[in-house]
Amino acid sequence: MSDKIVHRGVAIVTLADGDLMLEHCKPHDIAIRQDASGWWTYFVGENGEVDGYDEAFPSRDQAIWAAKAAAEFGEG
């Protein structure tokens, strides 16, 4: 089950294994997903396009802080 927080009006959604991003996120949301490499941060665009950082973060907390920083600067 996904978990959602809102920071500066931007939803930051932590996805659980098996969650489909576009079922849980809408345009301008930020998604966080874990895999074997770490915690990935993705940005959902106006038309459902998804972009993200080139590297995973080593922890969920670091991914959330990066998402919050992006929300602060309107990058989400």
Outline the structure in words:
With 76 residues, the protein is of the alpha+beta class. It is built from two helices and five strands. Strand 2, helix 1 and strand 3 (30-35) form a beta-alpha-beta unit. It is globular.
Radius of gyration, rounded? 11 Å
Structure class:
alpha+beta
Broad shape:
globular
**In total, how many beta strands?**
5
Tell me the series of helices and strands, N- to C-terminal: EEHEEEH
> Quick one: biggest sheet?
5 strands, mixed
User: Roughly what fraction of the amino acids lie in strands?
Assistant: 25-35%
Task: Tally the structural domains.
Answer: 1
Poorly predicted spans: none
Question: What is the oligomer described by this structure?
Answer: single chain
Helices, by number, come to 2
**Whole-Å distance between the termini?**
22 Å
Strand order of the largest sheet: 1-2-3-4-5
- Please state the average pLDDT score: 93
Helix content: 10-25%
How do the helices and strands line up, and which of them pair or pack?
Layout: E1 3-7, E2 10-14, H1 21-24, E3 30-35, E4 38-44, E5 50-52, H2 60-72
Protein name: DUF2188 domain-containing protein
Throw out a few tags for this protein.
22% helix, 76 residues, 2 helices, alpha+beta
Can you describe this structure in just a few lines?
The protein has 76 residues and is of the alpha+beta class. It has 2 helices and 5 strands.
